[in-house]
Amino acid sequence: MNGTKLAPRDQGAPDYTKFLHPAMARNYGKWDYHERIRPGVLLYVAENGDTLYTVRAGSPRTMSPDLIRKICDIADRYCQGYLRFSMRTNVEFMVEDEADVEPLIEAIKTELGFPIGGTGPSISNIAHTQGWLHCNLPGTDAAGAVKALMDDLIEEFENERFPNRVKIATSCCQINCGRHADIAIIVQHHHPPRIDHTNMQICELPKVVAICPVAAIRPAVVDGNPSVEVVEEKCMYCGACHGQCPSMEIRDADTDTLSIWVGGKGSNARTGPSLMKLAVWGLPNNPPRWPEVSAAVRRILETYKEEGKDWERVGEWIERIGWQRFFEKTGFPFTKYHIEDGPQAMWTYNRSTHVRI
Amino acid sequence: MAEKNQGDNSPDTKELNTPLLDELEEGPWPSFVTDLKALSRKKPQVAQLLNQLEESYEDRWNYWTGTVLNVSGYGGGVIARLSEKKDKYPDLAQFHTIRIIAPPGFVYSTKALRNLAEICEKHGTGILQLHGLTGDILALGFDDEGTFAAAEDLMENGWDLGGSGAALRTMQCCVGQARCEMACFDTMKTTRSLTNHYISLLHRPEFMYKFKIKISGCANDCANAMIGADMPIMGTWRGPMQIEQAKVAEFIDEKGVEYVIDNVITRCPTRCISLKGKELVVDHEDCVRCMHCINVMHKALKPGKERGITICLGAKRTLKIGDTMSSVIVPFMPLETEEDFEKLTDLIDRIWDFWNDNSMDHERIGEFIARVGLATFLEGVGLEPDPRMVDRPRTSPYIKFEELAPGPFEGEQKQEPPVWNREPESSESA
Ligand code: SF4
Ligand code: SF4
Ligand code: SF4
Ligand code: SF4
Predict the structure, then answer these.
(1) Which of A242-256, A311-325, B213-227, B275-289 is the least confident region?
(2) Residue B322 and residue A84: Cβ atoms within 8 Å?
């Protein structure tokens, strides 16, 4: 920066007290209850009777500065210049007066084209990863798959028709920075990494060897140069080495597929948090709209909507009806690949005679 | 068709050619493609971005490689990307993301948000993602110079860079007391205080691997901490929950007694709720603060008055040993006073010291605890074992009881007083 004075470092998290809607600031820690007025609109009532209507709108997450400004215009006009974003990339506009709710919704729909919803037992906006737009590892895109899926599921965003809320997530490689969710879409690779021996960074070799979870990578000399080799029977195609070293290419445009996992839950309400489990595998990685993925997700959702009882999340519903009936009812095959392997596997077998016959 | 120019908007790179992406303009959900296309009229590099993305869609292949770029004084916060097609798309030769620490609870004034958009547009494409899964604001599309200039400008305006690499990561919390009646402590304040207390560790990677802290005001975990953070800090309470029986009766009148039985009584994980007429009775000693009954009857039920936090450790996604979940490390501690906060940071310091001194490269804390065992870990950080930390005691009988092994010289067990009948150590944690 040619000796120019540097800006202050290490300032940390912004002072949120400057960013609170006045009703939030006044009633901080003094909220009494909330109500879902209708899908996408929540009413928060404070101890002193103050009201705060929150309108939740689905955003595309990746936004141009002009779109951000349009969002700000609406918040300036209706929300005293404040707004917030939810964890799942929804924009939340807040007004104190019920009379402002309708015009606000109108403005969001016409000026932004954002749908209103994502509250209560609906499908919320999909938390997703970077994909082809900006990561160095992806086997598929995230934003595009999510756009296509939400096009298909928008009615379920705009209505509250499920037993409980449904969170969906995507990951575009086996590192899986996407979350555990009620339903998640993941990339699968199907062969060991291809090694570019000409491009091996020798300094990184010990790290590449160390990162393999199953110790399948060992140092080797190839064509007189130090490199590595992969013990193919051991390798489980996880791609950990690819994250460490770009010369270990795990992706394959011709053979990578997508799989669907169900029953993840972070909340502690009722049952404790749970990890998601394999439901469907071998779906084609089919841009630009991934229709096979949408169809499979929809099939699971329709069955859950039909069969789940009030308050049951997807995983809780399946726990109650059992996996046998989950596969029966959704019509997806249960295969040998659905059975856990590894040292903990035996704890996942049915260790009782409790069997639905 | 390779362009070897300096990225001066020659017509070839500016022209959009995106038949596959165009299909993502269809449908009712807002389309990032439409939005970015509009931006590409102002910012030629965005046209190149879309054209490269189109090639990814066409080839099912990715064209970014990673590299390292640091802003002066920082060891992270920039996710540096170089295009493998830089000959064709010269403006993507350097195309970095800056992670910016978001305001806790993701609250903004429009003034702040406009300021952010303006700075990022001035020095880069201005594309913002609100927010990344890391909890950061992600600003996309800066070359090296633009990254440095944007960082200075951002910091001049009170923004700071987020974490990346083997460091403390940007923290994230639910909206908490700002707008939620369920919140058992001040999540936003805790997030900001912890962030600023540890800001140096967030900016300069010193850990064996990444460490994420996420903070939820209650067990509903809107911040996705339990399965998304190395350290979830979760709101809870001690003693009885608050019950307003008049509102219970109203609820029963409105919804019917069957609804309450099916959706409240039988869904309580510890079966500690019962109905006496139109009165709800909760055996608070067996209540595990799961929040379910409060979610259903939130006008009638509220968390108890003596509030605090439960601290867990260990969640992460798949790499390397498979997905792990967090488990309880501190069942309860209050978090109201300066002193409480110091106790919390003292514990975090001990956890980090023990982890970093003893873990292997790339070993997240959950993997570390899985390897050394929870018992060893507790000893290492100076916490007493507590039955609330486990689902059940062990089933394997092969145990090395230190107290019962005869010493090498004296040849006697240390049975004074008898171990099976000792006073329990205080279970007041932290
Ligand atoms: S899931 Fe993998 S490819 Fe996708 S953003 Fe995360 S690391 Fe990158
Ligand atoms: S893909 Fe995974 S298992 Fe296979 S060599 Fe790489 S790190 Fe090891
Ligand atoms: S985690 Fe609890 S306190 Fe925080 S927003 Fe969700 S319900 Fe409210
Ligand atoms: S909070 Fe959960 S455990 Fe406690 S009484 Fe309510 S349902 Fe039962």
Answers:
(1) A242-256
(2) no
For residue B328, which amino acid is it? V
Report the first-to-last Cα separation within chain B, whole angstroms. 65
Local confidence band at B412 (pLDDT 50, 70, 90 cut-offs) = confident
Angle at B15 between CA B14 and CA B18, to 5 degrees: 120
A195-236: CATH number = 3.30.70.20
Ligand 1 atom closest to Cα of residue A142 = 4
Which CATH number fits the domain A127-189+253-339, given the four candidates 3.40.50.720, 3.30.413.10, 3.20.20.70, 1.10.10.60?
A: 3.30.413.10
Chain A residue with Cα closest to B319: A175
Chain B residues within an 8 Å CB radius of A140: 60
Q: Which residue range is the domain that position B292 belongs to?
A: 240-302
pTM: 0.94
As beta bridge partners, residue A212 has: none
Measured over the CA atoms of residue B395, residue A266, residue B162 and residue A128, the dihedral's sign is positive
Which DSSP helix (H) or strand (E) runs through A290? none
pLDDT value at A160 more than 90: yes
Q: Which of A1-10, B40-49, B317-326 has the lowest mean pLDDT?
A: A1-10
Pairing relationship of beta strands B213-216 and B231-238 according to DSSP bridges = parallel
Query: Rounded distance, CA B52 to CA B62, Å?
Result: 9
Residue nearest atom 2 of ligand 1, based on CA coordinates: A173
Cβ proximity of A108 and A70 under 8 Å:
no
Q: Which two tokens stand for residue A166?
A: 């449904």
Is the CA virtual torsion A262, A283, A147, B9 positive or negative?
Answer: positive
Residues having CB closer than 6 A to ligand 2 are A 192-193, 211-212, 214, 216-217, 230, 235-241, 250
Domain count, chain B: 3
**Tens digit of pLDDT for each residue in A17-76?**
999 999 999 999 999 999 999 999 999 999 999 999 999 999 999 999 999 999 999 999
From the CA of B170, how far away is ligand 1's center (Å)?
A: 18
Atom of ligand 3 nearest to the CA of B173: 4
pLDDT tens for residues B367-400? 999 999 999 999 999 999 999 999 999 999 999 8
- List the structure tokens of B314: 């260990």
**pLDDT 10s digits, B75-98:** 999 999 999 999 999 999 999 999
Q: Among B63, B199, B268, whose Cβ lies nearest the Cβ of A10?
A: B199
The H helix count followed by the E strand count for chain A is 9, 14
Check pLDDT > 50 for residue A332: yes
